[in-house]
Amino acid sequence: MARRDLYPSRVSEKASISERKDPIIHNEEAYKQGPLSKSELDFYEENGYIMLEKFFDDTQLNMMKQELQYTMDNNRDRDSDEVIKEPSSNEIRSIFEVHKDGGFFEKLSQNERLVNICEQILGTQVYINQSRINFKPGFKGKEFYWHSDFETWHVEDGMPRMRALSCSIILTDNYEYNGPLMLVPGSHKWYVSTAGETPDENYKSSLQQQEVGVPDNQSMEWLVKQAGGRIDRATGPAGSVLLFESNTMHGSAGNISPYPRSNVFFVYNSIKNKLEQPFSGKDPRPEFVANRENVKPIEPVRNLSYSSKY
Amino acid sequence: MARRDLYPSRVSEKASISERKDPIIHNEEAYKQGPLSKSELDFYEENGYIMLEKFFDDTQLNMMKQELQYTMDNNRDRDSDEVIKEPSSNEIRSIFEVHKDGGFFEKLSQNERLVNICEQILGTQVYINQSRINFKPGFKGKEFYWHSDFETWHVEDGMPRMRALSCSIILTDNYEYNGPLMLVPGSHKWYVSTAGETPDENYKSSLQQQEVGVPDNQSMEWLVKQAGGRIDRATGPAGSVLLFESNTMHGSAGNISPYPRSNVFFVYNSIKNKLEQPFSGKDPRPEFVANRENVKPIEPVRNLSYSSKY
User: Fold this and answer.
1) TM segments (chains A, B) (predicted)?
2) I want to staple B180 with a disulfide (CB 3.0 to 4.6 A). Which of A25, A295, B173, B233 is the partner?
């Protein structure tokens, strides 16, 4: 029997918008449980994101920055799929799968304070579906156009339901003027089925610049209108953590300011929402962007400490 | 005898920064005279710009928007140097020389309230050195990299001194998230001599995307540092007027929001600062970007009214 697709996309020449079919907080008792308060959960449910200011203190922040630099330096001359470079130069923009480094970032991905929040929202134990460190240089950071992560994860990776969230640990101050992530509040409540079809091995170019799975202008206008015209920006000091729902429409403008931006990015998925065959009918994307091998719930780890490399 | 060049640029392989050699307010009695108040003049002198919120009322604003639309429609199929289109499409981005349209925008450029402010700051009668209407579409408005207008006007047009200002009449609300103009406060007090040499007919590509006359990263970092790390954005409601000094370093990120941006742009120059031969030694740029024919001081006009086309 054919599998039912709750969120079809890239199946028609015409885009369309439908209602979300999953809860946002997957746990009716979440507000009793913590660590997020009722008002924090309400904000997340309403807007599809929440910024937790100064979640990590300066000692932890410095540790993360050093480990990021170390990992960047180690990968500079590596030519590998996990290392994504700027379209027009050889500079590193992202390194994927850092949660399997057997060291600092693996431990960070298991951080108890983060994992507890994800379990609270997703209502089950969780695992890392994707991870990366991002480096957006000053002066020439490229824009990233609007997209819903879930749309890609569903179509290209076979994530069945909206039961995942992204966690961005901000390692540099995010200002209005250095290309902060922009989010359309409330957009996670709607699913934009995009026009077109997924090409083979789409991920090879889409990690640099997305061409399919991109919402049409009319849908974007509609989403911004339902938000009362608002587009929010994830500004805040280094050490803050941005959590956003898998289906929240987001993007970022370029960065011509001298200020670079870097962050650590973990996607937490419910252990009940493991990847299946891609709904596109194409081959799955590789393991480094969408984990499906040996998936096990995270055992939370309390403390952060330098990797043994130091 | 060789002419003395107070602001050499594009003459070396190495960039450098020097102090401004001209006043910012060219009139010691300016504060006694109005229309700008002492505190407004002080802000302009210190920061190199000032935003005059809701300078035009809604009736005047609607008139300007209709006239802009009319002019855009009239030029859509015109293939002319004055009509600048997006690099990657046929959409109009700017139309130059609107202050010679014999109609609405000519009268607007002579608007008494604007002209009085320019005379107050520049200390003499003024004329229009360049004008244009700009349209930056939603979703795909391109970035414009950092630059000092004066650097180009001096090198390519032969403007001898820093005694001009730009006036941008904002016809659409400018938000943090639709690619507002960004300015480095205080940058007008320093002159960045950029590296390289001016190619022949540089204006043909530089009006779409500037490649020479672009400040180096080190100079930009220095300028932002002297500003205490600040980069200001010209946000504000439609009808506001942004005035900025000829040498203020400015640029804008791209615009992926659904909100388009349009404005009317006039460059007022002191009648004592008329264009000479370009300091690059090359041919002057054409009249439509740098007026040198029949230059006369503006006779201010009191009222705004629709062009006879309506």
Assistant:
1) none
2) B233
- Give me the domain span that covers residue A165: 42-273
Distance, CA of B205 to CA of B212 (rounded, Å): 10
Considering only the beta carbons, identify the residue of B220, B256, B258 that sits closest to A143. Answer: B256
Nearest residue on chain B to A224, alpha-carbon basis: B258
Residue B177 lies in a domain: yes
- CB-CB neighbors (< 8 A) of A139 in chain B: 217, 220
Tokens found for residue A36: 């997020």
Sign of CA dihedral A240, A178, B171, A251: negative
For tokens 């956003």, what's the residue? A244
The confidence score (pLDDT) of residue A21 equals: 97
- Distance separating alpha carbons of residues B47 and B50, to the nearest angstrom: 8
- The tokens describing B144, both together, are 């414009």
C-alpha to C-alpha distance for A165 and A150, rounded to whole angstroms: 9
What is residue B188's three-state secondary structure? helix
**Nearest residue, CB atoms, A177 vs list B138, B145, B233:** B233
Number of independent structural domains in chain B: 1
DSSP string, B136-175: E-TTTBPPEEEE-HHHHHHHHH---SS-EEEEEEE-S-B-
CB-side neighbour CA atoms (13 Å) of B13: 0
Residue A92: phi and psi, rounded to 5, are -70, 130
CA dist., res. A159 & res. A48, Å (int): 19
Query: Across the interface, which of B143, B257, B258 has its CB nearest the CB of A256?
Result: B143
Instruction: Report the alpha-carbon distance of residue A206 to residue A158 in Å, rounded.
Output: 17
Cβ pair A177:B182 closer than 8 A? yes
- What are the residues of chain B with a beta carbon less than 8 Å away from any beta carbon of chain A? 138-139, 143, 145-146, 175-177, 179, 182, 217, 220-221, 224, 231, 233, 251-258
Which chain A residues are Cβ-neighbours of B256 within 8 angstroms?
143, 145-146, 182, 251-253
Per-residue pLDDT at B140: 87
Give dist(CA A196, CA A205) in Å, integer: 16
Q: CB–CB of A267/A84 below 8 Å?
A: no
Cβ separation B179–A145 shorter than 8 A: no
pLDDT of residue B309: 59
CB atoms within 10 A of CB A91: 12
**Confidence (pLDDT) at A230:** 97
A37 within a domain of the structure (yes/no): no
Q: What is the mean pLDDT of each run of 10 residues along chain B (310 residues)?
A: 87 92 93 93 98 97 94 85 79 91 95 97 98 90 93 97 98 95 98 86 68 90 98 97 98 95 96 97 94 96 78
What pLDDT sits at residue B45? 98
Residues A220-255: pLDDT tens digits? 999 999 999 999 999 999 999 999 999 999 999 999
The β-bridge partners of B269 are B127, B164
Which tokens go with B44? 């302009």
Helix (H, G, I), strand (E, B) or coil at A178: coil
Q: For residue B5, is it within any domain?
A: no
Check which CATH number belongs to the domain holding B88 and give it: 2.60.120.620
Report d(CA A15, CA A220) in Å as an integer. Answer: 11
Residue A5 within a domain: no
pLDDT at A43: 98
**Mean pLDDT throughout A138-151?**
92
